Amino acid sequence: MKYILLAIPCICALAAPYYNVIEPRAFGFPFFYWFNLALIPVSMAFIYAAGKVGGDQ
């Protein structure tokens, strides 16, 4: 389970051909840029959850 939680943000970041678009824009930034910026806190949440699920092994 821990490795699945760690793989999800990695797969999202590597799927750039699917989100390499301009629209929709947020605050004037194309989708590609604000998706990558939004992926940072999402990745932090997944890493935190993986640490809680994995425990001290």
* Mean pLDDT over all positions: 90
Beginning-to-end CA distance, first to last residue: 14 Å
Q: Quick one: overall form?
A: elongated
Residue share in helix: over 70%
Q: Any idea how many domains? A: 1
* Poorly predicted residue ranges: none
Query: Biggest β-sheet, characterized?
Result: none
Strand content bin: under 5%
Gyration radius over CA: 14 Å
Sheet/helix structural class: mainly alpha
Number of helices: 3
For the secondary structure, the number of strands is: 0
Order of helices and strands: HHH
Kindly list the characteristics that best describe this protein.
72% helix, single chain, 57 residues, mainly alpha, 0% strand
Please give the structural blueprint:
Blueprint: H1 2-14, H2 16-19, H3 31-54
Helix pairs in contact: 1-3
Question: Can you describe what's shown?
Answer:
By secondary structure, the chain is mainly alpha-helical. The protein has one domain. 72% of the residues lie in helices and 0% in strands. It has 3 helices and no strands. It is elongated, with a radius of gyration of 14 Å.
Short description:
By secondary structure, the protein is mainly α.
